[in-house]
Amino acid sequence: MSQLQALARAPARAGVLTRLRYLEPVTLLWAALAVALVFLVGAPMLKLLIISFEDGETGRFTLANYAIAYGRARYLEALGNSLMLGTASAAIATVLAVPMAWAMSRTDMPGKGFTWAMVLGAFVMPPYLGAIAWILLAGPNSGFINRAWVWLTGAEGHLVNVYSFTGLAVVIALHSFPLVFIFVKSALDLVSSEMEDAANILGANTRQTMRKVTLPLVGPAIIAGFIVIFLETIALFGTPAILGIPARFNVVTTQLWQFFEYPTRVEVAAAYAMPLLGITVLLIVVQKLMLSRKGFVSQTGKGGERRMIALGRMRWVAFGWCAAIGSLSVLLPLLVLLQASFAKAWGRGFSLSNLTLRNYYYLIFEHEMALQSIWNTLWFSAAAATLAAVLALFVAYVSHRKLVPFAEVLGFFAMAPFVIPGIVMAIGFYAAYAAPPLALYGTAALVILAFTARFLPIAYANAHAAVRSVHPEMEEAARILGCGRGRAILAVTAPLIRRSLLGGWLIVFIVASRELSAAIFLVGPQTRTMSVLLYDLSEAGNFEVLAAFGGILLAITLVLVVIGMKLAGRDFMLRRN
Amino acid sequence: MVQFTRRQTLAGAAGLAGMIGLGVRPAGAAELSAYEKALYEKAKPEGELTWYSGQLNAETSEAVGRAFTERFPGVKVNVVRSTSQVAFQRLSQDMRAGAVQCDVFASTVSGHFSLLKRKKELTQFRPQSADGLIDMLKVADPDNYYQSAYMGLYLLAYNTSKVKAEDAPKVWTDVLDPKWKDQLAVGHPGYSGAIGVWAVQMRKMYGWDYFTKLERNKPLIGRSSQDPVTALNAGERSVGLAVPVGTTLLSASRGNPIKLIYPTDGTLATAAPAAIIAKAPHPNAAKLFMEYITSPYYSAVISKYFNESLRADVPSAAGAEPLDKVKLIAPTEEEAEKQVPQVREAWRDTFGV
Hints:
Largest sheet of chain B: 11 strands, mixed
Structural class of chain A: mainly alpha
Number of strands of chain A: 0
Radius of gyration of chain A: 27 Å
Low-confidence stretches of chain B: 1-29
Helix content of chain B: 40-55%
Mean pLDDT of chain B: 88
Oligomer: heterodimer
Largest sheet of chain A: none
Mean pLDDT of chain A: 86
Shape of chain B: globular
């Protein structure tokens, strides 16, 4: 009897073993990836949602946090201000960037290399550094632009005022327009001249053609760019904190910061962050709906001819437009920052007696934290970029090759942080992982993990495109010849996509190295990054030192971009798939 | 330390002044008293301490950190300089996360300390050198949970190239005159502790009306109490309110056109302490640092950067009025603790930020 039982059990056990034997390692990989994504994205967001309904002291369910968060006119006003600012900045950026993209993509405008460099420069310069530069340029009484204006015209009062709603919106737009530019230019690159020719044959001139044919074709790209800038703006912390306080303009992010004042009310902050999250999700959905109805097929695969439109004398007007934007967003800010960084007192302007290296000397040799923060920035960003790249590659591979059921869910999670503003994500990380049991507060790990999660979508989009570009046939050939999947990936796929993965790594590295809003709540004394230290320095009553630190930050970024161009191609920052 | 103080007294202030003048910092371990040596030996294995510095400006804080490590090699100071309210925010964020990073906490709001003491978040410790502090600073807390570390004077300043001396404001209420519209600059009590204390004092003297009138002149609002100094240097604004003596004189010494005004209705004096946090990760290094803060060495360093010396045996900085010639005003510690949060809210309602 017992023998029979044993016999009966044996096949059953063998069954499990057999099944385990046939279990592909990818299933384990899937599980590992799922755990990683839940840890990085799911858990912090869930925690944020939960604590927004919790009492800070007792942990019991309550709606009081929402009552506090929306119980004051001032708090609601900040919400309205954010929406206004987002709309204004996105609109200005679109107006700036669309003609620029059109001129670059479709016309014979001169100085395209220069324009390209300006766009790249505006993209690379951290927005808060631009804000500081613009204080020097457009302070109502002391800014160089206003002083020049008074000197030239003899007028009373100022021409531009950086401490105003308009000032804030323009400064933000000047540093975010490259996003619209990239979107629209890559869309325009795909529109063949034949469609424009058709309009011309029917009697339309260049302007009419542009308005009725070309622009509608790239409409979806313009909308996408607009939405991305809107979202970036409402999630921005540095610029509103630096310019918004003197402008008497409170926004959601600076209000969130106030909830962290003593006593730290994370729960209220969580409740207050919910609309930011809601708006973002809503906008992405709206964009999807709008684009799904309008199907413009401009890519027919028939390889239409593309000719540059000859602008005649107007081409100098086009160049003037690009050059003006380039000067406002990159050249002038750079000039005044450098002047201040080498000045004893920046108010004294350009003169030999005002020159000094003291500001740099102080930061490099006397400031205890400056070098440490540079080092922190470099290695946190490198670690985050590596983690994000590896994770994104695996997720992209698994989901693209559909190796396991529900692989797309992984892809969805990897893209999810795109709709989470950095500052909201940071609060989620603080709530979930700062306190025990994980007790990550003040450690490098907390900052690195938050950066990884925040920039995972960039890495994923990049990795996804890279994986898609390699047809599975090549791997299959290797497998037919006896390779395991691992070896096939290493020996065949990896070398093919190395270059574009490297590009993705560098982009994450660069954006992480200037990230402020996700870092500000998560750094401890020893894990401060350059961006946070720069923010600390901005209230230290010493713009010369601040500018010098900005100069160091820019020099480092520049080196990185040059390395990136060498390794991953000249257009690695601006490439879009 | 007692021995040392005696020696110091014998040497006289002149010797110390000479030492400061030459930029020679007090030399190392050889001169340590037995008491200091004992503290130092215990601090050495810890190797470092973290100091949240909300009182001194960035340059001075860094200089103090370096001078400390020079005197006590092997014990590094992690200087975390910010405005006082931001330092306190960081501290409470640390505590909330259950991961205290800070060893020595220094803020311009004395109310922070009575609050922390009540919550049992401070360590009891009396440095021996505290006996050498000037009388009004000798006992910050009878129970010795915190010690005097800073004596800050906050007053008016003006840009000398934009305003003539005779036209400059003389009392705090002068700046309410409409002729100063778009000409004023001030910090923010949500960030700066000193500005909070100043706002409490102004409200006490002139009522909240002072600020509603001030708003009509549209002052440029920064964050830190020293932000107006930047605005004055640049010529962005002509008169700064409640600016600290230290940063202003330091800036003037570098050739900026900026001058102090001691208001005849009183200069705000905030005596503010420093304390060791109860769960400090480096408790012994923190004790050594508290000993240092009350010692003449610390006063010597900070007065080089135009801050008030805390001791009679170290002369105050050049360019500042001697304390006994200045009319000082300040809210009580209790008023500061209760009312700073109130004025912070009222400020946001009045100024919109």
